[in-house]
Amino acid sequence: MKPVKIGVLGLGTVGGGTLNVLSRNAEEITRRAGREIQVCLAAARDVQRVRGCELQGVRLTADPFEIVNDPEIEVVVELIGGYEPAKSLVLQAIANGKHVVTANKALIALHGNEIFAAAEKQGVMVQFEAAVAGGIPIIKAIREGLSGNRISWLAGIINGTSNFILTEMRDKGRDFADALAEAQQRGYAEADPTFDIEGIDAGHKLTILASIAFGIPLRFDKVYTEGITRITRADVEYAEALGYRIKLLGVARKTPGGVELRVHPTLIPKRRLIANVDGVMNAVLVYGDAVGPTLYYGAGAGAEPTASAVVADLVDVVRALTSDPENRVPHLAFQASAISQAPLLAADEFKTAYYLRLTAEDKPGVLADISQILAARQISIEALIQKEPRPGESSVPIIMLTQLTLEKEMNAAIAEIEALASVSGKINRIRMETLG
After folding, report:
1. Is 205 known to be catalytic?
2. pTM, 2 dp
3. Which one of 98, 140, 205, 247 is the catalytic residue?
4. Alpha helices, DSSP H only, in 103-175?
5. Residue 85: cis peptide before it, omega within 30 degrees of 0
6. Which residues of the chain carry a pLDDT beneath 50?
7. Candidate CATH numbers 3.40.630.30, 3.40.50.720, 3.30.450.20, 3.40.50.970; the one for domain 4-135+303-337
């Protein structure tokens, strides 16, 4: 059979890695796909500066629309990132009857519903394995490998930058700012790290995972996001002393009232495998009713780990090129007509346990006042640490772990405790998950 001709939009880290993997493993990939995959055309912002990737037989262009409008190109690989021009290019490729492979989690999380509807109408595929957790085949695992299960919940460390920072804070006793600077020096964090450290990147990925796990539309606007900027070295040390690790966790959970979608720093028991995922590595824990808990671990970013997922998607597209469009694997795992409009819970309806750290005067009755406020809200204390005051100081740090409670009850309790004359400053609150 004749080769499948593809065009690549973007020759940055992932684009270069994709070309290298396709070239180096060409024979193996052809054996798996059944046809040769041939990169004919690639777009780069500056074609004179492209280097570090295999370009033999590849024509370069500075105009990405030349690729999506080329009648010979059958599959477009979008590796530009961001919202525009990526969205316009993908929609134009689909309108021209081309299949699309993308690693763009922001594009899928915010515009995936529109993109998949256009693809359904045109009878083409949009594959996006590389959009979540780099080289870990988590989308295929949920969409296909676990298709016999009712998935109850999933929880993931899906941002390597934040995980590296928290690991440095724990292992080397660094402050947040110092660990962030190290991440930037190593190239793990951007000059503007907001998307990573504020949980936005993880929120994009959680949006996608929740949709394929529960068969719901992509709704990034309903994801609660909280970053790691308020985590201190003291919090990390107290968590360790209590038998926990702090991770930026994305959690999607089905409850009787609706679906929880949340990203935030989380205390996890040290005995859990996922609590021991360190550095820039990613991991996703998925619980299905038939299979129980399953854990997927690997590199969440990087040129060739991400290229691994991009090329796997290309192989799937090539295998399915002659398939009846009605019998292909659905984009979001469930048939388009069966996507559920399940309610999504507001943040104050989340139910979790909590770690609380506050500073209070070292005098009788203070703990009783705090305990009374918590008890009035039906919030039970699981564990408590009160440190000795430092010489010359009259206030002490108090650390508490609570049992499960509604977020709105905890919000109200925190407001009351912070209003006490004996309590100074803000309470640092971190949610907890046992993941049992």
Report:
1. yes
2. 0.88
3. 205
4. 105-122, 138-140, 160-172
5. yes
6. none
7. 3.40.50.720
